[in-house]
Amino acid sequence: MAASSRLRDLILNTRVPLVLDHFPLEWECFNGSLHDWCERFDQESPNPPAFELMALADTKTPQWERKRRSSPLHMQQFLHEYGVLEEEQTHWAAYQYKRAHEIPASCVKGIDFSSFGFPEHGNDFSLWLGSEQANTPCHYDTFGVNIVVQVHGCKSWLLFPPETPLQSTRVPYEESSVYCLENFYAPDPERMQELEALSMQAYHCNLQAGDVLIVPRHWWHYVEAKSTSLSVNYWVPLKDDMDLALDEFLVKHIVESFVKGESDQLKQYLLNPNQLEDVSATPSELYAQFERAVQSMESGQSGRKLWETDYLTQADFSRLLNTIHYTVRPLQVMSSDEFKLLLKENAKRHRADAAPSEPSPMSSTWELLVSSMCAPRVIAGMKREFFRRLRQGTSS
Asked: Is residue 52 situated within a structural domain?
């Protein structure tokens, strides 16, 4: 069996995150320094890209995307102004979750996931560039297994298995991401005991340049740049995703029903910025999308290569792991002391005297209603009932 095929089987069957230390990748676009990459970007891009800026002192809640402001910055300007976090700086900056087609051609040239056993990626990958403290609030991805390649700098990944009792929310709503309310960027010292109770389920790594992280399906993760960081990720599409697509259509319909006819302020609060332009569908259009998803699931057809997971026993997985000739490291649960120290250090950022960064146009009861109606187990129950009635109608 080829090395890439063995690695693919590991990726699709791992039950815990994997780190591939110093993985031998030769992607042409990243030859040279980060400055070289940024210089090429500026030369080929007609306009400066829009960076997200987020106040370091905004610590009352997770640093949701809706609270960030946009600012055009040339890449070299970003490196000059945010390359090292200075004491007088008030914000972090990031240009992240950018698909390949949004990046100049020379800056993605040679990126290929064949080494991991997935040659059919179709350039469906994303780039993430950010300064120190740039972060993504804790969430899990609805679809796929995540392959993350750290190109420059270092990122901290705090991960929890799917069954961890985090407080899921769909406010803010982003299609294919489920956030939680826990604030790992700046934990409230008064709530530290609640977070410390998660210590038996906390996994962590500092991903260094040249390392690769495999995030299994539905694992929670909080990600923060420890220095100026550039990474690339690819979500491996799975056959199980076809079933989950129905869940996401139901959530989308529920959320959009709440924002129809509401103020822009409420829409900007409830929806992640990348969802704001995607709320124009009528109920009948949403239903048509749902019906197509049902048909695809029933027929087992999708338009692209989908992969199976969990087809190896744990014993076969362990044997396969021993045949890999480079370092593949399954992450272990953090020690309780390490987890508490991480929380304690991040809690130093918490400012009890900070004013709320945004007035809420939704009452807390309304937020609870949205998140309750969209909770994964509620959506799963709706879907089960739908298929029970569908099959009952078909058989009658």
From this structure: yes
Is 336 among the domain residues? yes
Nearest in space to 53 (alpha carbons), one of 73, 69, 67: 69
Q: Which long-range contacts (CB under 8 A, 24 or more apart) does 112-117 make?
A: 112/27, 113/147, 113/234, 114/4, 115/4, 115/7, 115/23, 115/24, 115/25, 116/4, 116/7, 116/8, 116/11, 116/147, 116/212, 117/4, 117/5, 117/6, 117/7, 117/8, 117/9, 117/11
What is the DSSP-derived secondary structure letter of residue 221?
A: E
Contact call for residues 28 and 109 (beta carbons, < 8 A): yes
- ∠ at Cα 257 (174, 368), nearest 5°? 65
CATH number of the domain that 61 lies in?
Answer: 2.60.120.650
Beta carbons of 172 and 213 less than 8 angstroms apart: no
Asked whether residue 76 is domain-assigned, the answer is: yes
Q: Is residue 378 part of a domain?
A: no
pLDDT at 191: 93
Within a 13 Å sphere around the CA of 15, how many CA atoms are in the beta-carbon half?
11
- Between the CA atoms of 281, 286, 287 and 292, what dihedral angle is there, to the nearest 10 degrees? 120
Domain span at residue 136 reads 3-238+307-362
**Site of tokens 């990726």:** 11
- HSE of 355 in the Cβ direction (CA atoms, 13 Å)? 3
Give kind and range of the element (H or E) at residue 324. Answer: none
User: Which helix (H) or strand (E) covers residue 98, if one does?
Assistant: strand 91-99
What stretches in the chain show pLDDT beneath 50?
none
pLDDT given for residue 300 in this prediction = 58
Half-sphere exposure of 202 (CA within 13 A, CB side): 23
Give percent helix, percent strand, percent coil of the chain, each to the nearest 5. 40, 25, 40
